[in-house]
Specification:
Structural class: alpha+beta
Distance between the termini: 85 Å
Shape: globular
Radius of gyration: 31 Å
Strand content: 5-15%
Number of strands: 19
Oligomer: single chain
Strand order of the largest sheet: 8-17-14-19-12-11-9-10
Number of helices: 21
Length: about 725
């Protein structure tokens, strides 16, 4: 448990505490009851002199607030400090203005909007080119010109219903082939692959039409698919024209950064990850540079901005055990992964959190190394753990990127009624055991769904030694397992970790750290994949893979120090390797494979976001997902990155148009060189009114219809008045 950070070093002495005094200035309620346990039979109760209402018994202070002295409770109780971890307070959804992102000024919004359009414009161009190719093919089949082609609008049961391609299972973006008889659809990419002969499930007619596949393939039989569109005709092409008119040609600087992770030291075997200090005042352009280059960033000590609410495992258990129904077993137990055999098992929630610090043992005397990922599953984080959700949001670095409503977070641009991708936040609990036993919990090599921020909220050293005589056999089995694992290692069957998994340069930091990260560069991914395919048999698998479709998407490999040494010798590549300490926020750009090993029992919270800088990598990953088998766990395209790009560009262009129109209407005569205080001529006024009228006719869609009509009438009235005056 983190001790309360007291700002008053000269705390009042215990003798000044006021406990159960009869003559208080303010009325007290439940004066003999402890606010934590709601009981009055556990001994002395320390009263709060700030609110004069709540008190905490010594038993609860010792059990639930080990880092706080009695004097702190007398000065201001945990409830007054907003760190009370009783069940009622943990479940209270207190409105907090600190969760809101500070509003941006017009200048910053304009700058960020131009930045979004500039970065995403190449991808929007590719989307338009891809769709125009399909339009041209359809026009040739119908014997029409592209301009004369009229596509029927796709009928949806919901305005923003998610449509998936029947072949690659990715989300369908605007133009697509659809069966008029069933719900089978094909994206533009699959249509081109079918015509090129790369997909055999769908057949073609003599003139190039695609036939709906059989029922076994998800279709309905020999029906010809029709080309349809989701959005209005030429809307995306017109959006591209507008985006090109507002985007400038400036590109992010290609120069090296002083803290670049590419700087090497001769005695080190790893890259040095960039660290951003003082995130409140850090230059956002500096962070954008690292994000654009695909470099992970560490932001240390972000917990200092929180109130200090406890993330102890038993506190988390108290917060999550609230059940709405006595038969609601999904709250009382959940499925976890045992990192010794990578099998799932069901465990009681209290038993799991208790084993987080005290340890759990199996029937053979080996410590259980359990890991719970992506929790809570059933409800959102904010609904299940409202107070802890508030703490997480407070310590997010670079909120305009990482916050779910950040201005530079692309999913925040989607309409309110649309189906948004599930980006978290989610909690991960991982057991950690002293590394001399040869066990640990780990996250195998994988990609994040998109950009990711991971904050280490709590660590605890777990003592795996069993002291009771009844478990002496378990201790002997542990020592026997250690020897067996060492023998397996000598045979090439390496288990996930030994004490050498942290290099000598970082070993001294391991005592303070919680998790070891290895992050690979985007440009090294092809060589990394080749190494994994080549040395697949050297990895230890409890359940061997039937077929290796993709070495990273399988999430089946963990590279030990020996593997990383061989990777450097054979292919000349190596990862960023660093230790994440308590309170460190690690930001991983999309497209960078990573793996994690826990040095201690760790509680971390991660959330995904989609930056404009990483859209290209997100598109590359979605293309890889399309090539996976239909029953693969990573097959589904949940990000819908093309739709995110479309809405982000659309919203940015609309904002820039609105600002330009407002400037046109609010700053007349700026193009006529009329000095302040100088009276414009009639011809200057006439030209200015014509310019305003043109702006309203071209960008009037940004106004409400009645407002546009009113402004046009006023402009016409003034124009008529000027004409009558000049005559």
């Amino acid at each position: 448990m983190m001790p309360w950070r007291n700002t008053n070093e000269d705390a009042s002495s215990a003798g000044n505490m006021q406990m159960n005094e009869p003559n208080l200035k303010r009325k007290r309620s439940n004066s003999n009851n402890c606010h934590q346990c709601r009981r009055n039979d556990k001994g002395r109760v320390v009263r709060c002199t700030k609110c004069n209402k709540k008190g905490y018994c010594i038993t609860c202070i010792t059990k639930w607030y080990a880092g706080m002295h009695e004097t702190y409770f007398a000065e201001a109780c945990p409830s007054c400090r907003n760190i009370c971890n009783c069940t009622a307070c943990l479940q209270s959804d207190v409105a907090n203005q600190e969760l809101l992102i500070p509003d941006l000024c017009i200048s910053d919004k304009t700058q960020y909007s131009k930045y979004i359009v500039r970065v995403l414009l190449p991808f929007l161009k590719n989307f338009v080119v891809e769709q125009n190719m399909e339009k041209e093919h359809e026009a040739r089949i119908q014997g029409l010109s592209v301009a004369g082609l009229r596509l029927p609008k796709a009928s949806l049961s919901h305005e923003y219903q998610l449509k998936k391609c029947g072949n690659c299972k990715s989300s369908v973006f605007d133009i697509h082939q659809s069966c008029p008889n069933c719900s089978y659809k094909l994206c533009v990419s699959c249509c081109q692959e079918i015509r090129n002969g790369f997909v055999s499930d769908c057949k073609l007619t003599n003139n190039g039409n695609i036939i709906c596949p059989s029922q076994g393939m998800g279709g309905c039989g020999p029906r010809i698919l029709e080309l349809k569109s989701t959005y209005p005709v030429n809307w995306i092409s017109e959006l591209l024209t507008k985006a090109e008119s507002v985007a400038d040609a400036h590109e992010p600087s290609e120069g090296a950064c002083s803290c670049s992770g590419y700087n090497r030291r001769s005695e080190s075997d790893n890259f040095h990850c960039p660290t951003v200090e003082g995130v409140e005042t850090a230059d956002q352009k500096h962070f954008q540079w690292h994000l654009y280059k695909g470099e992970p960033v560490i932001v240390p000590n972000v917990l200092r901005r929180t109130t200090g609410l406890s993330w102890e495992p038993l506190v988390m258990w108290r917060a999550s055990r609230k059940i709405k129904s006595t038969h609601d077993l999904r709250i009382l137990e959940f499925s976890v992964t045992n990192c010794l055999n990578w099998c799932e098992e069901t465990i009681n929630i209290h038993q799991f959190f208790k084993g987080y610090t005290e340890g759990l043992w199996d029937s053979e005397g080996r410590p259980k190394i359990l890991k719970l990922e992506d929790w809570p599953r059933a409800e959102s984080f904010a609904e299940r753990l409202p107070r802890h959700f508030q703490e997480f949001v407070k310590c997010l670095p670079f909120k305009h990127y990482t916050h779910q409503a950040g201005y530079l977070n692309m999913p925040a641009k989607t309409p309110k009624k649309s189906l948004k991708p599930e980006l978290g936040p989610k909690i991960c609990f991982g057991y950690g055991v002293d590394e001399h036993l040869g066990f640990c919990s780990a996250t195998k090599l994988q990609y994040a769904l998109s950009d990711m921020v991971n904050i280490l909220m709590h660590t605890a050293a777990q003592d795996p030694v069993v002291s009771s005589a009844s478990n002496q056999k378990a201790n002997e089995n542990v020592m026997r397992n250690r020897q067996s694992e060492r023998e397996n290692k000598n045979k090439g069957k390496e288990k996930i970790d030994s004490s050498t998994s942290v290099n000598n340069e970082q070993r001294f930091e391991a005592q303070k750290g919680g998790a070891v990260w290895d992050v690979f560069r985007r440009q090294d991914v092809p060589k990394l994949e080749e190494y994994l395919r080549r040395h697949y048999g050297q990895f230890r698998h409890i359940f061997p893979l039937q077929q290796l479709f993709h070495p990273i998407h399988e999430k089946a490999f963990y590279l030990t120090v020996e593997h990383k040494r061989n990777l450097k010798a054979e292919y000349g590549i190596k990862p960023w390797a660093f230790i994440q300490k308590l309170g460190d926020a690690v930001i991983i750009p999309a497209g960078c494979p990573y793996q994690i090993r826990n040095l201690k029992s760790c509680t971390s919270v991660s959330a995904n976001f989609v930056s404009a800088e990483s859209v290209g990598e997100c598109i590359r990953l979605s293309t890889e997902y399309q090539r996976l088998p239909n029953n693969h766990s990573s097959k589904e395209d949940t990000l819908q990155v093309k739709t995110l790009v479309l809405y982000a560009v659309c919203q940015a262009v609309q904002y820039l148009e609105r600002i330009d129109l407002n400037n046109t209407l609010r700053n007349p005569f700026e193009h006529e060189n009329v000095q302040p205080g100088e009276r414009p001529s009639l011809s200057q006024m006439r030209r200015e009114l014509e310019r305003m009228k043109l702006a309203l006719e071209t960008k009037g869609h940004l106004f409400q219809p009645h407002m546009k009509d009113y402004l046009l009438k006023e402009i016409q009235r003034l124009t008529d008045k000027i004409n009558s005056s000049s005559s």
